[in-house]
Amino acid sequence: MSAEASAPVETATVVERPAARRACIVVLGGRPFAVDVVDTREVVVLDATTPVPGAPSSLVGVMNLRGTVLPLIEARPLLGLAVRPAVGPARALVLADDTNQRAAILIERVLGLAVFENVNPPTAGVAPGDLIVGDLVDEAGDRATVLDAAALLRAVRRAWDSTTQPSHAVPSAPELVAPAHTPGA
After folding, report:
1. Residues spanned by the domain of 111
2. What does the DSSP 8-state code read for residue 20?
3. Could you tell me the end-to-end alpha-carbon distance of the chain, in angstroms, rounded to an integer?
4. For residue 103, what are the CA distances in angstroms to 7, 73, 124?
5. Rounded to an integer, what distance in angstroms lies between the CA atom of residue 148 and that of residue 132?
6. What predicted TM-score, i.e. pTM, was given to this entire model?
7. In CATH, what number is assigned to the domain containing residue 153?
């Protein structure tokens, strides 16, 4: 038997790192914001929207997304940000919570996807709140404020509920919609 065959075999030590997550980075109020891709469905170019009488200011209206009516939300005032026009065609980010109820938020533009491992406490000057989870720093060192998509959807629902009263002819809160079945799909 040769000496090489009886030599001990070194084993590599595997260091486990937390699983990296991805976020969709968009611009709101001139600043980058991130939403975990788990809570996002797609970015859409807005065609036509329909206003909803009696709706709170955060509910811009509704839009038709392949046969499904989605609430269209203006999230910037909820975040204490100024409303700015979109760069190019108007776009919206479709969000879904853990019950798969969906709504779209108006965005100024899309910056892309980022990979991150941790969410840090918010930077100075950004107050943590129900809608802001913290900050992420991507692999390139760029920062973005992380939004809690489910909390944002709940905030809009609360705003709607506070503006409607049982005596109004306006229906109660429009449901944040679940995906509709598409014939032939």
Report:
1. 20-163
2. P
3. 65
4. 63, 7, 30
5. 6
6. 0.73
7. 2.40.50.180
